[in-house]
Amino acid sequence: MTTAVLAAAAGGAALLLGLLLTGPLRRLALRREITDRPSAHKAHTQATPYLGGIAVAVATLAAGSAAALAGDAFDQAMGVILGGAAIMCVLGLIDDLRPLSPALRLCVEVAGSAAVVLGAGHPTVFGGILDVVLAVVWIVFVTNAFNLLDNMDGAASSLCAIIGGFVCLTALTGGPDGLGVAMAALAGACLGFLFYNKPPARIFLGDSGSLFLGFTLASAIMMLHADTVGLSGPVSLLLMTLVPTLDTTLVMLSRFRESRPLLQGGTDHIAHRLQRLGLSVGRVVWILSAFTVTGSLSAMLVGRKLLPPGVVLAAVCVLGIVVVRLLLEIPATSASSRGLGAPPKTSVAAVVRSTLRLRNR
Q1: pLDDT for res 361
Q2: pLDDT per position as a tens digit, 270-295
Q3: Which neighbouring-strand residues pair with 23?
Q4: What are the φ and ψ backbone dihedral angles of 48, each rounded to 5 degrees?
Q5: Under a CB-based contact definition with an 8 Å cutoff, are residues 294 and 163 in contact?
Q6: DSSP state of 311
Q7: How far apart are CA 254 and CA 251, in angstroms?
Q8: Cα torsion 215, 221, 227, 231: sign
Q9: Domain locations in the chain?
Q10: How confident is the model at residue 353 (pLDDT cuts 50, 70, 90)?
Q11: Contact 175, 304 (CB under 8 A)
Q12: 124 pairs with which residues across the strands?
């Protein structure tokens, strides 16, 4: 049986498992009142159950491991990644049920990331321990970036399905076979979960799901580029996670400028700001998905040396600065959340004009 067939089987099985598990977990969460309740810093208006991430994690781990074992493609590196991902899921579940301290969460995330970097490898840029430290920091960053990105119906799971699909395709055409199978399972599980998570969402991923997705993707991309030397590896990592990276940068910068708590939730993400331009939730998810497809495709081209990594990195930095600068002109909170009536809608043209005025001062 070829690896491509195994990957297809893993993806199909994970999709089916995701569909079958999410419904019962939704009912369990409602019965036990494991729900995300509305508040001033959240966008949803009614209590929505958590535990969707458990369905995604179980579907991914079960289908991915079974298919890899069947094809004799399950190796030590894959075991480290999937084991670490399972730990992240449990960590997030505990945090969903009883919030943990940021310090404890960070310690577990660092330990899991270090295990992946030492067990599955990492790109070489500077050589020595510095590369190890940077790789660990990057996995921790992406893990939490996906946790922040899970702020709109269908967003995190859609982007994860896209990135997982591209990682799978890259692995199947020249990377570790087991990784391709596992990423097919991850993409399939996300697609199955999307049946319940598409707007209007009937269940959320919760921290158990968002931490699982972020850690698994970051670790998989790291392993995929473990043999690269120079800029191509880091640039590919950045391109595949461009949307969560920009979202986290925007949120942290916005909250710092406004002297708001950096770790407190809020409706100041890319998705929320695009909504204030008058876009529907579905259209916002399509826009974020289009950016993710573009970034992932560019990463594949950089990895195959069809695009120069230095030029691409410079272009991405310029694009990122422009996008963040424009988005900062859109209000971080709506008027309705401050008790001032209906939220204002800002046009794209108005944002651009405002930015140009600021630059010309």
Answers
A1: 44
A2: 999 999 999 999 999 999 999 999 99
A3: none
A4: -125, 135
A5: no
A6: H
A7: 5
A8: negative
A9: 3-360
A10: very low
A11: no
A12: 229
